[in-house]
Amino acid sequence: MSGAADRKGRTMKKYKLTEETKEYYGITLYRIEALKDFGTVKAGDKGGFIRSEDNLAHEGDAWVDGNARVDGNARVYGDAWVDGNARVYGDARVYGDARVYGDAWVYGDAWVGGYARVDGNARVDGNAWVDGNARVDGNAQVYGDAWVDGDAWVDGNARVYGDARVDGNARVYGDAWVGGYARVDGNAWVGGYARVDGNARVYGYARVDGNARVGGYARVDGNAWVYGYARVDGSAWVDGNAGIMQIGPIGSRDDITTFFRDQENGISVKCGCFCGTIDEFEEAVQKTHSGTKYEKEYMAAIAVARAHIEGGE
After folding, report:
1. Per-residue pLDDT tens for 100-139?
2. Are 152 and 134 in contact (CB under 8 A)?
3. All residues at 6 or more sequence positions from 258 whose CB lies less than 8 Å from its CB, including other chains
């Protein structure tokens, strides 16, 4: 039984450091060998490389296998596994039933626990946490003080950073970035080259895709789909596809203009550096473009947006 104690109550060692070593940047790592059966490991099985017994607990079924390396002040414990060519170092922790494998790296003060999986070329560092049944793979990066939890999945070239949280059944993929204090949860997806930051929240079955940007205190909910070059900012609240409209390229900037329902149940507009209510936008258009074709374009867009968004679902 793993973690068994001798008659004096001392934990019996489940592995030893062998004489087979590797040098990394002047640091000697030792291949480990199991001294007894535990979990799926059999006595005599060779494992991966660690710097010292401080890196891998003798209690539980935790194991370092393959060509994986654990060094620094990092620690693997519980029933966690580090396998393949994975690296765990710095002050990182891998615990519970977590798995780190492939060519993944976990370092800094990062923690990976629960039933989480980190694989591929993924990187988890800083003070980041990956927990629950979460999965981080591909070339994804989770760093800063970010959390990925629940059944969330971060993959591709995606990044989750800052104080962002990805939770529930959410997915962040492609080249998408979620940062700041943003939250992505529920069954929401953020993909493509999209950016979600600030204090924004994307949840429900919402989708943010393409080159879209969601920031400020914006909320994207329900079955809403924010895509293309849409810009949703400020106090926006998009709770369905009738809550947003983008049109363009139009106007003096020959660019996309986005209209969206805000948290006061009015309509706000993001157009270039302008972000304000639809009434403020109309006033700005008349002041700046009076008598030009741009006024006609913008005023037509304003009329359509009012009909679309104020009309509801």
Report:
1. 999 999 999 999 999 999 999 999 999 999 999 999 999 9
2. yes
3. 230, 231, 232, 244, 245, 246, 269, 270, 271
